[in-house]
Amino acid sequence: QVQLVESGGGSVQPGGSLRLSCAASGRTFSLVAMGWFLQAPGKEREFVAAASWRGSRTDYADSVKGRFTISRDNAKNTVYLQMNSLKPEDTAVYYCAARKSVVADKGPDSYDYWGQGTPVTVSS
């Protein structure tokens, strides 16, 4: 089992930045790939970013490339999502997820553990 707790969400103006954190406990964190997903009201959960077990391989949704950065600190059992140049369309609840594989994936169905989510609102 892996327990995930997100933090760092909040309200920010367009162009601003936020850093989300996801603290993991339980199963050996370094052996799982991690992902971030978002879900806007009335919409399906969408892929944002993912990192392999060492963080050496990362992948991003086209909509966030160049603005968001995923990173992980396996010594701290934590994965981060640095979000810069935020736009109103980034408004959503953000979830971190862990996959029982060292390889990251874009599909939410391939992840085994989920956090409760942290809301992000981008508005002027």
Give the helices and strands, then pairings.
Blueprint lengths: L1 E6 L2 E3 L5 E9 L6 E7 L6 E6 L6 E3 L7 E6 L4 E6 L8 E8 L13 E2 L3 E5 L2
Number of helices: 0
**Rg calc:** 13 Å
Give the low-pLDDT segments: none
Q: For the terminal residues, how far apart are their CA atoms? A: 40 Å
What is the structural class? mainly beta
**Tertiary shape:** globular
The H-and-E topology, N to C, reads as EEEEEEEEEEE
How would you describe this protein?
This protein is mostly beta strands and 124 residues long. Helix content is 0%, strand content 49%. Strands 2, 4, 5, 6, 9, 10 and 11 form a seven-stranded mixed beta sheet that branches. A four-stranded antiparallel beta sheet has the order 1-3-8-7, with no helix packed on it. The protein is globular, with a radius of gyration of 13 Å.
Keyphrases for this structure?
mainly beta, globular, 4-stranded antiparallel beta sheet, 124 residues, 7-stranded mixed beta sheet, 0% helix
Short synopsis of the structure:
This protein has 124 residues and is mainly beta. 0% of the residues lie in helices and 49% in strands. It has no helices and eleven strands.
